[in-house]
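Moderator note: this is an archived Q&A kept for reference. The question asked for a predicted structure of one protein chain; the sequence and the answer are reproduced below.
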Amino acid sequence: MVKEYREFFERWTPRMLSILRVIAGFLIMQHGAQKVFGVLLNEMVPIRPPLNSALGMAGMLEFFGGMLVLVGLFTRPMAFLLSGEMAVAYFLVHAPRGFWPMANHGELAALYSFVFLFLSVAGAGSWSLDRLWNPDTTIPTMHPFGPL
């Protein structure tokens, strides 16, 4: 029974890592599209900022970096940059509004920061351009029964 669980986790962990990467890349791209192209505007970003501003540069990193993460190309360095950008966004924009992320509306920035930090360490997963480019890349297999 435990062997079947191990085989399941070994087979699906890299695939689910890829799915997490695609969803995170797709979602962060929308935040970048707000700032770069002026689409999907809301009360947090009511107008398109100038591209040479800090918010405009953040938007370019979110859109184009998110695109690279989505397809799984240069995943580790881009995820690391996006993790740092989200940490900076949290501490510069949200934390001054209060301690609790729910109260300062920073829970999404904090979550993005840690998801991208995880991807920067774990890599792109099995379904990625990084994997096609370098098939010898090791893919982590994590499961609740410990290492084999």
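Archived answer notes: The chain is about 65% helix and 0% strand.
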